[in-house]
Amino acid sequence: MGTGASVLSGAETPPGAPAGPQVVAPDLLWRKVCAAVFMMCCGSGVLVVDYLIGLDACFNLLVIALTIWGLGEFYAMCDARGATPFRAFGTVAAVLLVAFHWLSMPGTILRLGLPDWVGPFFSDDAVLFGLVVAVLGSMWLQATKRDNDRTFESISSTLFGILYCWFLASFLIKLRHLGADGRLGGQDWNRTGTLLLLGCLAVSKFADVGAYLFGRKFGRHKLIPRISPRKTWEGLWAGLALSAGVAYLLWAMRLLPLGHWWAPGVFALVVGGMGVLGDLAESLLKRGSGVKDAGNVIPGFGGILDVVDSLLLSAPAAYFFSVLVLRLTA
Questions:
Q1: Cα–Cα dist 39/37, whole Å
Q2: Would you place residue 271 in the very low, low, confident or very high pLDDT band (cuts 50, 70, 90)?
Q3: Helix, strand, or coil here: 221?
Q4: 271, 119, 248, 111: which is closest to 189 by C-alpha?
Q5: Domain residues for 80?
Q6: How many domains does the chain have?
């Protein structure tokens, strides 16, 4: 499994190119669709298994795996710019923070059958303590190097990688534990959290698919060509419209537990819009590091970060919006 970033290809549309419909090879489109369907099936399968057993251990392991993989790709992009992050330390710190955060969720210690005295060691304070250790550890590793070259680059790239790949992804775990009363571990959290997470995944990915399919055919006005030359305003609005349709379909089937009639539409706009920003944010990082894809392990997409980039911002948006709506209707 390679995590190295692939070098920017000269065949990609330059940022200054004139606007116009994009021509994409059918085999590339097929690979993108197949990879998207495979990812959604895997994610849904893990959530269904956890729902049936009443525990989110499988999902937490998936988040850990994605964190390790994504952080490896992020650090590879940093290396491409000579930032030299502390790879091993950053990866271990991120994995421990995922575990601490999961164990701090209400009721997790009890469901795992661990002794009562273990509970106080895993709380929000434990996560904050882990962050403090990550900051101090990065500075200590830099202080013990033989020289002071790239001090800021090494420390900042290590810590930003942890925040980007762990902190933003941690809202997936929060969303998974959100109850019908808008509180973590609250009323009917197993069903509510599962459906909200599936809704977030569906809305984010259908926004991507809609924007890609409509934008490559009818796109004329570039969104931010300096960062992502192929994204257009027409594709953006089409993607949001498709995601709104998906959200209302899920709501009508009672698979999106948001009470008010207007909530699915706003949910789609907020979550889908933040998903687009997440995609642009990762494109910004790739442009800054001079690579085309974060990795080359998934045909048609690139690396893990190229697949989950939208979720890194749509998950926090889905969590905060759901908390607001659920508490208003509780």
A1: 5
A2: very high
A3: coil
A4: 111
A5: 31-329
A6: 1
